[in-house]
From TrEMBL:
The lineage of its organism: Bacteria, Bacillati, Actinomycetota, Actinomycetes, Pseudonocardiales. It comes from Pseudonocardia tropica. Residues 24-58 form the FAD-binding domain. This is FAD-dependent monooxygenase. Keywords: FAD, Flavoprotein, Monooxygenase, Oxidoreductase. GO terms for molecular function: monooxygenase activity. SUPFAM superfamilies: FAD/NAD(P)-binding domain.
């Protein structure tokens, strides 16, 4: 039993998939439960719902095709997001993070800033703005 203040982190394996079931599928955490370290949980659930609704609206009298098309889009996206979440979980709960959490966060933020610079979003290098002393 977890002590007061402790909460287990539950997640599905990265790349989790299931065999097709005609007219039946899952969205959100039911489809791709991951740790909160990619920040994609709610975004993924809303995107799942929108993708599935668009597919069903296109052919409302046949759910087999829409579900298959939704799952073909959702599975790779969920795998990518879950991999990022798993990487974040490993990074922030590592022995290195316990020894110097500020350095680990600064490194992660620098990576986010560098990724943003590649897509035109910009970004700030937290190491350059971090106080010393």
């Amino acid at each position: 039993m977890a002590e007061q203040g402790e909460r287990p982190l539950e997640m599905l394996p990265v790349g989790h998939r299931w065999d097709p079931v005609p007219g039946v599928t899952l969205i959100g955490d039911a489809a791709h439960l991951m740790s909160p370290f990619s920040g994609q949980g709610a975004n993924s659930a809303m995107l799942d719902a929108a993708d599935l609704a668009r597919e069903v609206a296109a052919t409302p009298h046949d759910l087999t095709g829409p579900v298959a098309r939704y799952e073909a889009t959702m599975f790779p996206r969920a795998e990518h997001d879950a991999a990022g979440a798993a990487q974040g979980l490993e990074r922030f709960f590592s022995a290195e993070a316990a020894a110097d959490p500020v350095a680990v966060f600064a490194e992660a933020m620098a990576e986010v800033g560098a990724a943003g610079a590649h897509d035109g979003a910009g970004g700030t290098d937290p190491a350059a703005t971090r106080r010393t002393g």
